[in-house]
Amino acid sequence: MKHVLSITYSQSGQLNDIVTNITDNLSKNIKVHHHKITPVPNFPFPWTGKSFWNAMPESVQMIPSEIVPLNIDEQIDYDLIIIGYPIWFLSPAIPITTFFLGNQAKSILSNKPVLTVIGARNMWVMAQEEIKKMISECNGKLVGNIALCDKHYNLISVVTIIYWMMSGNKNNFLGIFPKPGISDEDISNVSVFSPVISNSVTNSDYDTLNEKLVNLKSARLIPDIVSIEEKGKRMFKIWSKFILKKGGPESNKRSFRLKIFSRYLLFVIFVVSPIASLIYYLTWPLLFIRIRRKLKYYKGVRLKAY
After folding, report:
1. Are 213 and 146 in contact (CB under 8 A)?
2. N or C end of the chain, less CB within 10 A?
3. In-domain check, residue 273
4. Does 57 share its domain with 180?
5. Positive or negative, the Cα torsion across 206, 126, 111, 72?
6. Residues facing residue 2 across a β-bridge
């Protein structure tokens, strides 16, 4: 019997559904051990406006909070560890960062192959770069990544995700917008990855796992969105440091700076990003080789940084 350890954090439940659809369809000779991360205190769902923006500085600066210790049987020699996580402000969600920075992660992940599973709107590469570093610091080996995204147009997905996160309703907003988040079809069809994962676990061979996952379209990347995300991450780091100068998440002194940031972000998304995308595609022919190399790296096709 082979053993797979699944560790997930899912605020809305969407990420848990994705991981479950993968693991439920693994080979019958594989036993899956599921564990869910629980923050202390828990983050609300749906979000309130205040709680949403207040999570930004700690998310970006990857400042841990507190989680309930996972009741994992560390006597089991796990053949694969699956880490499922969502994206907050172009960074790993605070609870998943908290897990990685704790002693338990170092004990569990050491010398183990790790498969990451992401549920995101459409920007995930910067968060995954941080996760790569933390896996390496825990002495684990990243062997593959699956990233599911909302496939609707960028600005439309912004509207629908805000509606979902603030209302808790995953339905058609105003009857004219598409359903928010990752489509039900994509969540169901994620089981297409299960056979190749099963094969790697059964044979203890992960050398070509990510390549096989990529061939099955495990990671969707839109070039101009990746470019916007790279620039956005740099700006988020500046803003988060600026806000943290007024204190931690319990400090009311940072409320005004968070309010300014929220206005700034909405302006960038709806005004600046469409212009940036246009400029990006106008310069595409000049940067084609570098862009292609970069996208291959983010998908994990190439191991070395571009």
Report:
1. yes
2. N
3. yes
4. yes
5. negative
6. 30
Q: Mean pLDDT per 10-residue run, the chain (306 residues)? A: 97 95 96 97 92 97 96 94 97 97 94 96 95 96 96 90 91 83 94 97 96 93 90 96 96 96 94 88 78 83 40
pTM over cut 0.90:
yes
pLDDT for position 301: 52
Q: How far apart are CA 88 and CA 54, in angstroms?
A: 11
pLDDT of 302 reads: 47
Q: Which of residues 190, 220, 250 is at a domain's end?
A: 220
Q: What is the pLDDT of residue 294?
A: 83
Whether residues 98 and 239 share a domain: the answer is no
> In total, how many domains does the chain have?
2
Looking at 43-177, which runs of residues are DSSP E strands? 80-88, 91-92, 113-120, 141-149
Q: What is the CA radius of gyration of the chain?
A: 19
CB 137 within 8 A of CB 114: no
pLDDT at residue number 295: 83
Write the DSSP symbol of residue 270.
Answer: I
**Structural domain of 187:** 2-220
- Residue 249 makes CB contacts below 8 A (sequence gap 6+) with 54, 55, 57, 58
Q: Tell me the C-alpha distance between 236 and 160, whole Å.
A: 22
